[in-house]
């Protein structure tokens, strides 16, 4: 059995003063002198973005989420406190650490900042050395938490996303497609006669088979928004946002051919002498308030029809009213 402990990469355990490469920092302050000082301090180590207002900061964080936000607490219009609260309420930005910068250094101010979700609090005028150390510390903590989140949503055997990751992505993409009147498709995939494969060749070869099938299908995934995940056992699922039924059928046929081309021997299959997959495809044009479970049910029903119809094939349906 595998250990329940998680080993973190050695490069995350280095001294807090070591630079974190390719991290991005958003600096938010209405004072040009502060922006210039901090930009000069970090420009050679991180990718640096600046904003001069709370509204501008939220917009930039939404479009291109940074790894950390250095945020002035007192600004005209939207305060830093409100910016922090909105960042923490948004699932897309809630994991970004926020360090407050302010000339107010009372205990009450610091407590309010931490209550709002800030990771740290730096008083002005600040010491560049202290700012550098605290920024780098928060970036390293975020790197660790990002790694743990990736592990939590990754299937250990295949390296694909797991069912938990698929569920969260489906709901997010379903809502996005509903807001923008875009189609979304789902492909359910099952390795044919996999129990027989395990009985004949053994479980280690079964693991090899699943890993190889996953790799072959992954090689046919071209778009960043598309998701291939392991649903459980010998079942996989492919989520295709902004894809109508015709495109989803084409993708399913590509996946079926990729697995068949592996030519993994399967003496127990009544479909072919090699490992094959059955696929069920469903597409919908969701509207606000529709339930993505309808898409799941439809794709699952098509998978059942594919298996009942002889396996090693694609069956599909379009949901006309989600």
TrEMBL record:
Recorded hits in CDD domains, A to Z, give: GGDEF
Q: State any single GO MF term.
A: diguanylate cyclase activity
**EC number of this enzyme:** 2.7.7.65
Stored PROSITE patterns: GGDEF, RESPONSE_REGULATORY
Q: Residues in domain Response regulatory?
A: 24-139
User: Could you list the residue ranges that cross the membrane?
Assistant: none
Catalytic activity as recorded in UniProt: 2 GTP = 3',3'-c-di-GMP + 2 diphosphate
Which Pfam families does its entry note?
Answer: GGDEF, Response_reg
Location of the GGDEF domain: 182-319
Keywords annotated in UniProt: Nucleotidyltransferase, Phosphoprotein, Transferase
Task: Tell me which InterPro entries the record gives.
Answer: CheY-like_superfamily, Diguanylate_Cyclase, GGDEF_dom, Nucleotide_cyclase, Rev_trsase/Diguanyl_cyclase, Sig_transdc_resp-reg_receiver
Return the broad EC class: transferase
Quick check: keyword Phosphoprotein in the entry? yes
Q: Which SUPFAM superfamilies match?
A: CheY-like (SSF52172), Nucleotide cyclase (SSF55073)
The name of this protein is diguanylate cyclase
Native source species? Roseateles koreensis
Source organism lineage?
A: Bacteria, Pseudomonadati, Pseudomonadota, Betaproteobacteria, Burkholderiales
């Amino acid at each position: 059995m595998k250990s329940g402990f998680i080993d973190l990469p050695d490069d995350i355990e280095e001294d807090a003063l070591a630079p974190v490469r390719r991290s991005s920092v958003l600096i938010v302050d209405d004072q040009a002198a502060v922006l210039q000082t901090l930009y000069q301090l970090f420009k050679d180590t991180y990718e640096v973005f600046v904003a001069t207002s709370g509204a501008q900061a939220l917009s930039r964080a939404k479009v291109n989420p940074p790894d950390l936000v250095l945020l002035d607490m007192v600004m005209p219009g939207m305060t830093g406190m409100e910016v922090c609260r909105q960042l923490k309420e948004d699932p897309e930005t809630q994991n970004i650490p926020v360090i407050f910068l302010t000339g107010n250094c009372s205990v009450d101010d610091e407590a309010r900042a931490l209550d709002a979700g800030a990771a740290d609090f730096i008083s002005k005028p600040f010491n560049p050395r202290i700012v550098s150390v605290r920024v780098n510390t928060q970036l390293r903590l975020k790197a660790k938490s990002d790694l743990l989140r990736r592990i939590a949503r990754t299937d250990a055997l295949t390296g694909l996303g797991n069912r938990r990751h698929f569920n969260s992505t489906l709901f997010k993409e379903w809502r996005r497609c509903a807001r923008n009147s875009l189609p979304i498709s789902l492909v359910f995939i099952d390795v044919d006669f996999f129990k027989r494969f395990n009985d004949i060749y053994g479980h280690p070869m079964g693991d090899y088979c699943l890993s190889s099938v996953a790799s072959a299908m992954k090689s046919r995934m071209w778009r960043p928004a598309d998701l291939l995940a392991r649903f459980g056992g010998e079942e996989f699922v492919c989520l295709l946002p902004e894809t109508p039924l015709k495109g989803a059928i084409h993708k399913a046929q590509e996946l079926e051919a990729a697995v068949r081309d592996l030519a993994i021997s399967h003496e127990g299959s009544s479909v072919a002498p090699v490992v094959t997959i059955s696929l069920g495809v469903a597409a919908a044009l969701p509207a606000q308030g529709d339930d993505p479970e309808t898409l799941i049910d439809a794709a699952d029903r098509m998978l059942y029809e594919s298996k009942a119809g002889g396996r090693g094939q694609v069956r599909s349906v379009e949901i006309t009213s989600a």
